[in-house]
């Protein structure tokens, strides 16, 4: 059973990785992809708004419910604890794939368009910086645990998972949620902001802010005064102009 669980975790991770890489190209309108955020036959604005908002609602509901500590306690009565994170990753990736597949493009009207070469290069560079910050942040808090691989590997070897630690590596010394900051930078950094892209950026940013509120409530419950002090000293998405030692951060 441990070997089957390990294979399940690996397949869930591969599915996530492929979908995530596609999502980068989707948001960035990269050529050669079958569909991006602005490509494809445009649909009436009302249809695009209804369908896209519903897709975001499904995405937000899945993340908000399955990421909560109370749900995890109930869920691990049904699935092995070692598979809980991989199952979350699988479900989250499936919902993301649905959003990318069923997204209704709304390329018009154009909200802004940067035509100057230097400006376009700067925004494209910011786009890639955002994804780099996001990816590096996952490794700073243990990328393989975040996506369930560490758990299934430990189960395969018959080892217990260590207790979560509270630490602030690199980016986490300056902002509490650099992973989410990477998303925000990537979603808003575009030389041409269409109506559809704007909806995507607003919806994802709004959900990130809501998700941070729920996540921090769980982190306070888990780490108590240590996280409360960290929250007082370190900015949520942007650094605070304050000196002093900062207590640590832990991954989910």
How would you write the strand order of the largest sheet?
Answer: 1-2
Question: Measured on Cα atoms, how large is the radius of gyration?
Answer: 19 Å
What is the averaged pLDDT score? 91
Uncertain segments: 248-252
How many helical elements? 10
What order do the helices and strands follow? HHHHEHHHHEHH
Largest sheet: 2 strands, antiparallel
Label the overall shape. globular
Quickly count the domains: 1
Number of strands: 2
| Percent range of helical residues | 55-70%
SS-based class: mainly alpha
Tell me the β content: under 5%
**What's the N-to-C terminus distance?**
25 Å
Briefly, what is this?
By secondary structure, this protein is mainly alpha-helical. Helices cover 65% and strands 3% of the residues.
Describe this protein's structure.
With 252 residues, the chain is mostly helical. It has one domain (2-233). The protein is 65% helix and 3% strand. It has ten helices and two strands. The protein has helices at residues 2-27, 45-66, 69-75, 81-102, 117-140, 143-146, 149-157, 178-188, 195-223, 225-233; strands at residues 110-113, 192-194. A two-stranded antiparallel ribbon has the order 1-2. Helix 8 (178-188) runs antiparallel to helix 9 and helix 9 crosses helix 10. Mean pLDDT is 91; it is low at 248-252.
